[in-house]
Amino acid sequence: MNKQRPFGQEPVSLATVAAQAGVSVATVSRIVNGETRRASAETVERVQKLVAALGYRPNRVGRTLRRRESCIVAMLSPNLDNPAMAAIAASVEAALRSAGYVMILCDTHDRADLQDEYLHVMRSQVVQGYIVVNPVRSEALSASIARGDPIVFVGRRNPDGGGAFVGIDNRRAGADAADHLWAREIRDLAVIHPTQGSSATRDRVHGFITRLRELGLSDGEVRQAEAPGLSHLEVGYAAAQRLVDGHPWPQGLFCPSDLMAYGAYRLAFETGVRIPEDCRIVGVDDNKLNAWIAPWLTSVHIPYTDFGTEVVDQLQALWDGEQPSEQLLPHKLIVR
Amino acid sequence: MNKQRPFGQEPVSLATVAAQAGVSVATVSRIVNGETRRASAETVERVQKLVAALGYRPNRVGRTLRRRESCIVAMLSPNLDNPAMAAIAASVEAALRSAGYVMILCDTHDRADLQDEYLHVMRSQVVQGYIVVNPVRSEALSASIARGDPIVFVGRRNPDGGGAFVGIDNRRAGADAADHLWAREIRDLAVIHPTQGSSATRDRVHGFITRLRELGLSDGEVRQAEAPGLSHLEVGYAAAQRLVDGHPWPQGLFCPSDLMAYGAYRLAFETGVRIPEDCRIVGVDDNKLNAWIAPWLTSVHIPYTDFGTEVVDQLQALWDGEQPSEQLLPHKLIVR
């Protein structure tokens, strides 16, 4: 921390001002930095009075950084042709733009070597911050974290632990899927997942099974199947094939992503199984296209369009020298 | 052009070597620049002999550029959450990476002001080239073209005319959709389109109507409806609403993009019209997800996964000082 402060005296933090003003840290940060448009006149006045009264001093490093010429923030994201990733990118791009930054986007393909390559290139471009969607553990990422680069992790947490994070409560999302199917009195239940699942995927599956256990099903009563690969479409298809190989389709199926649900749907379509009449599928993501062409899919809606604002707020807090924090956004099951 | 040449003597171009060697300009360019892995030993030898015999001299500007430190190419693309745009971005990113470049991606939202903003930022980053997907006319773009920056246009042509281009024959794509529906003996035909359509969209619609005229339908016999907006999903829904307002659904409907077809599908689903039984829809793009969750949609497949290689070949030709050219890739109607 680079704050100059008298020995023995704790500095007044943005968080202290925010708590006393009854607003978010990001709001205080914006007002202190002269961005007063998004708050009401009353809020601006209340915060400014508290800043004076408490003796809050803005972090100089943050301000200096923000005034440097570069206004670029780099987003590293896997698999741009995954609709969920595209939705996050679009949302963050819009939020950065309205905060005066431009976003450049790099496709890591979920690979550590490419993530490192792009981190090196971006570092040479003097970007102001990093947004890493679904990070994987890699050397350059650990080095960047160790240097204290401003990084916000999205979707998956920092593989080294800690750090600023925007995402959802994935266990709760899986539990909500279980509750939904249970409430419809479906007891013949199954779940499919990728063999090499991310922490997010594992948490969703874990939440689903744990909730069903609480509701009275033994683990053996919940059928499970997995398949290898990185494409969730193909994983969904192959895992569903294994699930129903020599067995009937379950009456309820949880897929930890909509793309896996699309894969299972294709197998059902090809084999004459009617969705949702014969098998109710619950996915996660609530991709924008579901409302248009997948009316058979109930899905846990993740508010990707709100991710942008949260990510930018977290970045600005990091620039202001605040401690990184986690922001879990509310998800919601959309029944179709 | 920066080629040094004796007065009165035409320089030997890559194209001349390529024609005599019976290979592509890109292949000659790669071999001349020492990238011999992708060609056979015979081809490399034949090209090298011709280079010596004809006295071809590589363009120094291209070589110098290529040796500069930056290995960044900027892609400007509208609406990253359009699956077609995402498919182009993924393909170009992979091709650039295997050629030793990294791609950074900027979302222009189909807006001239944002296109200009990103062009300014990218210029300050000393990128080696630009790929502009679906360009719109803008000041900074015209300035960049006038400076001779290496730019490859994708999807839509250079709004100022000329330049390197990768895309498909959009009129032919529309005509193919007409032929497909005609061959199924469907004569009750309609087309929907955005009020502010791009040249690509207009060409597809024009090709559809022109072909039906050739087949014997008068223009009045082909029902048309349009709707304003930038989201093709919403345009498709609203235009289909206008089309069927007080009229029955047509037996065949051409939508100049798959997203518009999804919009029309949603209206059909909501109103109990069965697709494809009651109305056959033909789209354009053949989005990857169609095979998984839109088995009712016949679509003109655009080989987006091949776009990357073509775009990089064109960029390398521009770096070598070659004249820009147009590359139309073969499309194919996929019947589902």
From TrEMBL, chains A, B:
<keyword id="KW-0238">DNA-binding</keyword>
<dbReference type="InterPro" id="IPR010982">
    <property type="entry name" value="Lambda_DNA-bd_dom_sf"/>
</dbReference>
<dbReference type="InterPro" id="IPR046335">
    <property type="entry name" value="LacI/GalR-like_sensor"/>
</dbReference>
<dbReference type="Pfam" id="PF00356">
    <property type="entry name" value="LacI"/>
</dbReference>
<keyword id="KW-0805">Transcription regulation</keyword>
<dbReference type="GO" id="GO:0003700">
    <property type="term" value="F:DNA-binding transcription factor activity"/>
</dbReference>
<keyword id="KW-0804">Transcription</keyword>
<feature type="domain" description="HTH lacI-type">
    <location>
        <begin position="12"/>
        <end position="67"/>
    </location>
</feature>
<protein>
    <submittedName>
        <fullName>LacI family transcriptional regulator</fullName>
    </submittedName>
</protein>
<feature type="domain" description="HTH cro/C1-type">
    <location>
        <begin position="13"/>
        <end position="61"/>
    </location>
</feature>
<dbReference type="InterPro" id="IPR028082">
    <property type="entry name" value="Peripla_BP_I"/>
</dbReference>
<dbReference type="GO" id="GO:0000976">
    <property type="term" value="F:transcription cis-regulatory region binding"/>
</dbReference>
<dbReference type="InterPro" id="IPR000843">
    <property type="entry name" value="HTH_LacI"/>
</dbReference>
<dbReference type="InterPro" id="IPR001387">
    <property type="entry name" value="Cro/C1-type_HTH"/>
</dbReference>
<dbReference type="Pfam" id="PF13377">
    <property type="entry name" value="Peripla_BP_3"/>
</dbReference>
